[in-house]
Design brief:
This protein has 7 helices and 11 strands. Strands 1, 2, 3, 4, 5, 6, 7, 8, 9, 10 and 11 form an 11-stranded antiparallel β-sheet that branches. It has 418 residues and is an alpha+beta fold. The two termini are 94 Å apart. The N terminus is likely disordered. Strand 4 and strand 5 form a beta hairpin.
């Protein structure tokens, strides 16, 4: 068969295939191009929520190099140089006012134990913090009748809370926590009395009473004088003054002969003489009674001054004997608390931390809150130290027991992580 005859069908087939391939290639759309991502000011927020909150790429490691989702433990004893400012008291005495600097608290501290700890598994953790302090010292009572007071104070505070890690990132974290804080307070308070103040009070009271007594005595004397005048006049009238006057007139040398001769009436006491005699008797009686009343007033004034001194001393003694000078008592209560704590790492060994919570809500204390800030150093993988400042406020009152106190000061600690 000639070669030209053999290649003709093959050439025709190739031509048809090329035409079909060109037609098919012309109808196929080009592949879609990938769209460029759109960015906005919310992009960093979204990345932060995704990478640090919802699904952290590199979660915070309690112990560097250890599985952050495993169990972790922290034990941290610390010292708190607290100062105290506020009122404390138990039923039976006025509240004592405290104004102790940190230095004075340390000087008067009988015993102090401070520690906190943490147990963590993944995002969940249990936080504990507590201290016990026994303090003795002097204070001033909120009443001038007391001169000074001495107190012995024992306080225990233990907090236990469940924490959830809201933000989890190798650069730091943020926890929200809620739990309860147990408070115990024991108090012995002994006060001394201000004797000069008590004497002043007794004198002032006696003067006020003496003024009323003097008014009553003056009224009584006036009534007695009036009554005495009437009684004297009646008694004088009852004695026959007129008869004595008549006899005196009849025995007078100059009048006797005239009377006998009938030149003068025998009764010279009639007419206006009788009235004049009555007035004279009344005037003389009033003068005598007034003099007697004056002497009586002087005697009463002397007796009143002596009685006033005795009354003042009796009142002072009564106040002293009746005023309490000692009380003691103890109370415990539990406050619900809710708070936040966070930590930021600047380097592998330096970090800054802060914590704040509020509680009470009248379930125990009327209000209680606690804030603190800390700077920390990681010495090794498992050992760290912290230095910070803490402020703790409690307002509690129940059945005469008062604890309205600000506790504040610098604290330092050394902790162990494992």
């Amino acid at each position: 068969m000639p070669l030209k005859t053999i290649n003709k069908p093959i050439v025709s087939a190739l031509a048809v295939f090329c035409v079909i391939a060109q037609a098919t290639a012309g109808d196929t759309p080009p592949p879609p191009q990938k769209e460029k991502p759109k960015y906005s000011f919310l992009t960093p927020v979204g990345d932060f929520i995704r990478d640090d909150i919802l699904d952290p790429v590199e979660p915070f490691q309690l112990v560097p190099g250890k599985d952050p989702n495993g169990w972790g433990f922290v034990i941290e004893p610390y010292l708190w140089a607290m100062g105290l400012s506020g009122d404390v008291g138990a039923k039976g005495l006025p509240p004592a006012s405290l104004a102790f600097s940190s230095r004075r608290v340390i000087q008067n501290l009988d015993l102090g134990i401070f520690a906190r700890g943490e147990i963590r598994k993944g995002r969940w953790g249990v936080l504990a913090d507590g201290y016990y302090a026994a303090l003795s010292g002097s204070a001033s009572l909120d009443n001038r009748i007391y001169e000074n007071a001495s107190l012995n104070l024992q306080q225990s505070v233990v907090s236990l809370a469940l924490a959830y890690r809201v933000i989890d990132d190798r650069r730091g974290f943020l926890d929200i926590y809620g739990g309860a804080r147990y408070n115990y307070l024991g108090l012995q308070l002994e006060a001394s009395l201000n004797e000069s103040r008590i004497t002043t009070i007794a004198n002032n009271v006696t003067d006020a009473i003496g003024t009323r007594i003097q008014g009553a005595v003056d009224a009584a004397i006036a009534q007695a004088v009036d009554a005495a005048k009437s009684r004297v006049a009646e008694r004088v009238d009852s004695v026959s003054i007129q008869r004595n006057l008549r006899l005196s007139l009849e025995r007078n040398v100059d009048l006797r002969d005239l009377i006998r001769a009938g030149l003068i009436r025998n009764d010279l006491t009639g007419g206006g003489v009788r009235e004049a005699l009555r007035q004279y008797i009344a005037a003389r009686a009033e003068a005598k009674v007034a003099a007697a009343a004056g002497r009586a007033s002087a005697r009463l004034e002397a007796a009143a001054s002596s009685a006033k001194r005795r009354l003042s001393k009796a009142l002072a003694r009564r106040i002293t004997d009746s005023t309490p000078t000692y009380t003691s008592g103890d109370q415990w209560w539990i406050d619900p608390i809710i708070g936040l704590r966070g930590q930021i790492h600047f380097t592998r060994w330096l970090y800054l931390a802060a914590q704040a919570d509020v509680g009470g809500f009248s379930a125990g204390s009327r209000i209680a809150w606690n804030v603190q800030s800390t700077i920390g150093i990681n010495f090794t993988r498992n050992i760290f130290a912290e230095l910070g400042y803490r402020y703790f406020y409690v307002d509690y009152e129940n059945d005469g027991f008062v604890y309205n106190m600000n506790s504040y000061g610098v604290f330092s600690s050394i902790g162990f992580k494992f």
